[in-house]
Amino acid sequence: MELDTDVDVAVLGSGAAGLVAAIAAADHGAAVTVFEKSELIGGTSAISGGIIWIPNNHLQAEAGIADSRRAALAYFESLSLGQIDSDMAATFVDVGPEMLAHLDAHTPCSFHLLPTYPDYHPEHPGGLAGGGRSIDNGLFAFSELEEWADRIRVNRPNPVMLIETPLGGASEMPSTDTLVSRASAGQNGMGLGLVGALVRGCLDRGVTFRLGAAANHLTTSNGRVTGVQVMSQDHVIDVRASAVVLATGGFEWNEELCRTFLRGPMSAPSGSPDNTGDGLVMAMEIGARLGNMRNAWWVPVTRADGAQKWGADRPHLVLLERTRPGSIMVNRSARRFCNEAGNYNAMGGVFHQFDPATFDYPNLPAWLIFDHRHKTTYDVASCRAVDPPAEWMVQAETVEGLAVELNLDPVILRQTVDRFNTDARNGEDPDFQRGVSAYDAFNGDQSLDGVAATLGPLDRGPYYALPIESGSLGTNGGPKTDTRCRVLSLGGGVIDGLFAAGNVMAAPTGMVYGGAGGTLGPAMTFGFIAGREAAAAVAAAVGTGL
Length: 546
Hints:
It is built from 16 helices and 25 strands. By secondary structure, the protein is α+β, with helices and mostly antiparallel strands. Helix 1 links the parallel strand 2 (7-12) and strand 3. It is globular.
């Protein structure tokens, strides 16, 4: 057994939660090593939009956007369904702005508001329909990472900020010349920009990275975590640490754990394929209390184009396609079953609707249906609007013909489309209220006003379809913590020396996805707390001679 040099704080995982934990621990005087299972840094954070949802943040105040602690807590309370620990929610609301301001001032991170991006439930008490809580990243030049630039998890270079895209509310993208110039300079935005800047912040503080180092067992003594065993190049490394921070992500790529814990089907995970529940299993082995295990950050996806990356499927998140005019979703009964423009996380519930009579899930499989005008106006998955229809699109000249191709009832699909078209032309959706929420139109066609941004008929053939699956950005159940990110024990009290942050922990916001960045905001906030508490544990251990 190889014995690694002792570390003060061992951070397991290199997504945003782990990187922020490493920065916070280093800022409080600890020597930190980040152990990453993959050969690439960044986890799911690096392939995300990189948006951070923080209520009552300093950028809002500077822009004159009204928000408050009371409003944020009222928002959580209105959505909690009894699943949010009020102390954890209050801690997020209180510490989130501090975390964001600290990174803004003391790391290469550069933040700006997505000024009009509404919360995901803006009509609820405390929700903001006009935006202000979702934070975008500036561009970060990967040349600043030097030899570490090639060790970031890159799905594809991304020389654009979210605010410059339709997802961020823009009506058009930056020019090709601008994008080419940025790409040649190694500039990246979104999740890549966030992770790159955080890695640079870690390196500036002397944080050490060990890649290809998969943690598999927490070592303990007298009920206290004293380190971690790590597998690296077929060797077991025994790492002694005064504090260990679990930031290993969720368990969405572990089929057995998903079957055991999740509340319903989830067939297409879209996070890092290395998220197989390592931190959860290690915590369970030493008696950690668990929470929120049935939930995930749900999202409708399609795998129709067969995209692959890192040896696994890369599902396409279906957001704009189902929100823009000229499209609907139907179930296997050829009927609509939801407001297609609703937020993706809440939509998980419609895929988990269970029919006790047929003993199955009636909304799976589902189909995205759209007409030729939609196809030639908007990008659909990896098929650009200017491209001919992709071979992976199911298509037919008529609605009835498409129904036959999909093994749906042609009469019912025709009725479904006709009813939607009539209502859409009247600017209404009495069945599912599509277009009523401020959120619905935001992800629609920003060149159209009002409900027309999301409501428009399907009336120009040919017609097309894509299969829709129940996917997830990541699971969000795991070891429960207190407000200091200390992992709680089944036997009562805390497990000394063990902390958790990010998707590995029981989500502090329960099943609530507050707005764009609703995963990264809490993950980074509790990473910030975990890091400084881990550093405090190091200082306490030194003081007591442990």
